[in-house]
Design brief:
mainly beta; Umud Fragment, subunit A; eight-stranded antiparallel β-sheet; four-stranded antiparallel β-sheet; 12 strands
């Protein structure tokens, strides 16, 4: 999750508040959409455990039509391992696994390398919808 510093019509400068991605400051280009493997900024859709509308930055790991599968707690996108879904958060909250199957049109699978990343491996995040997306993010510092 990130907090934002400055807003313009085309850009948003944010500060990373968690350990899920390396880096402290990210620039979000609201005019650009990332390619698979690049960073995507989006608004959190739920009311918990972060306020609705909080800004998140994750890696775009699956495009519409890609196949998300799970073997036990290991998650894959088109056969490429993404990471392990933990049964509970580091604070002890039970985490429900995220969706599997073909990613529907207008939705995306997001992830991060950190083992505690709250990403599409979990139902709380799920697949990110087009209307949540802010743009392409780039690490500044």
């Amino acid at each position: 999750m990130v907090g934002y510093l400055a807003v313009t019509k085309s850009y948003l400068l944010t500060i990373n508040l968690t350990d899920s991605l390396p880096g402290t400051i990210f620039l979000i280009d609201k005019r650009a959409f990332p390619s698979e493997g690049e960073l995507l900024a989006f608004r959190w859709a739920s009311d918990w455990p972060y306020p609705k509308g909080s800004i998140f930055v994750k890696r775009l790991s699956g495009l519409p039509g890609a196949i998300v599968s799970a073997q036990g707690s290991r998650y894959f996108v088109n056969g490429r391992e993404i990471g392990i879904a933990k049964p509970q958060s580091k604070t002890g909250v039970v985490l429900k696994p995220g969706p599997i199957g073909a990613i529907p049109p207008g939705h995306y699978f997001v992830s991060a390398d950190h083992p505690d990343s709250l990403d599409s491996r979990y139902a709380l995040t799920g697949w990110v919808a087009d209307d949540q997306i802010l743009g392409k993010a780039s690490r500044v510092f």
